[in-house]
Amino acid sequence: MWIVSDMDTNGAIVPGFAPFGEMVTLLGGGDLAPGTVTRLMARAPNLVVCDGAARAALSMGHKPAAVIGDLDSLDADTRAALDPDTIHYIDDQDTTDFDKALVNIDAPLILGAGFMGKRLDHELACYNALVRWDRRCILVGDHDICFHAPKRVTLELPEGTRVSAFPMDELRVNLRGLVWSHEDILLSPLGRVGTSNAAAGPVEIESSGPGLLIILPAEHLDAAIAACLAMP
Question: 10-142: CATH homologous superfamily?
């Protein structure tokens, strides 16, 4: 994947933030269904939370390995229940807590919950961050999952599975293995988008550059995980 922003992230980097050898579950302040969190934790046992999501994590019986953000939503009682060494305060108002987490987490893959739903402005900012930072991350909601595609991605999906490709920039895209397949189609956020397509077998998507979001039904998380881990 690619870094496509020139934003200075020095203020959002935590020195010594430990890398993870396995996948990470990352929780945010949006809608957090306990079943979704349990599902992600079964696949990605390392837990990192953004700011006030620590309260929700503790209420579900999960103790985070790290809490990161500007901590404006971390109440005193929740903070007292955490290991102080796991709390990483970043005084940077030019980035969101999701930005801060993506910049600092070094892991094979991040599975994020609590970033879809609740507030549309926050959700849109998360999709923007997916495109901007060079991190493998799948956002998981109650109904959908979303990730930033590399130049080529292959998905093993059952026939009929909904597949949407949403451009955040103007891109030339090849869509193969879909009911409505296309070669060298122009997609643009101000023009044609590739939503509500469907798999006709193994799906291969190629993009001319960064900026393409792939959206799938949430039940196909494992297929998305396999595709993301196979990314070069």
Answer: Thiamin pyrophosphokinase, catalytic domain (3.40.50.10240)
